[in-house]
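ingest -> validate -> predict -> emit
validate: passed (alphabet ok, no gaps, 274 aa)
predict: started
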Amino acid sequence: MKRSNPVEWKVGTSYSPSGTLTLSEIKEAGLDSIELVISRNETDLSYEGLKGRFNSYIQKAHELGLEVWSVHLPFGKDWDISSIDLEKRNQILEYHFEWLRWVSEWNINQVIIHPSYEPIPDNERLERIKACKSSLHLLAEKAKPLDIHICVEDLPRTCLGNTSEEMKTLIDAHKDLRVCSDVNHLLLETPEHFIKELGDKIATVHISDYDGVDERHWLPGEGIIQWDRVISALAQSGYEGTFMFEVKMDKCSPRQLVDCWKDNLLIQYKRADK
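emit:
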């Protein structure tokens, strides 16, 4: 496996049109990419609804020279692909298939999907894993001719995919499945361990800090994550995707993300890598 060079990574941020952050602010700060987040609270999540709501934002990003690296699909109880109610799960998947068709029209190659909602009782876990794997297989089959990677996000607490071992089980559903490594979701192992275990299956990341007790989405440096180890693990895995921040932007600006990367995280990595 060839080691990648973090200096060459693009840097981006998650972006939702329903927030206060603008695409122009993201570009002016010096960021390269965005992850477009589709909220479950949108009034119309049909194919036509997505076109009417989001196409102008993607076009605007392109005009500004911002890459739309990924799309985060809706998540929550109503969109849980691990539902053990087969009829409901099939209805949920039909929406997902429409979302993939829309994403493909913009030549976006990564979609992020949550493997479950929560809470998940222990006595349901194996059945929910089985249901999730069935859904992921169907999604990967649908995504393959569209040149889209289904990126399964690790999740905290009782959600599915809360450890590297369980994530391996989930993505074993299809050889084309990939992983979105959200480092502030890992409550049972360190982010660097998770990254080393999943290796080149990681196609994208969500970057933020936390206290190890629960997800916090803090700016890196405000929590306990050892960033030199995380970046080194990603580099060793050959990661070449975008270093995608997913920080609470009500307490942070795009410029702070750029400064955090250039003046803090990258320097920590270079110092430790000597």
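The longest strand covers residues 67-72.
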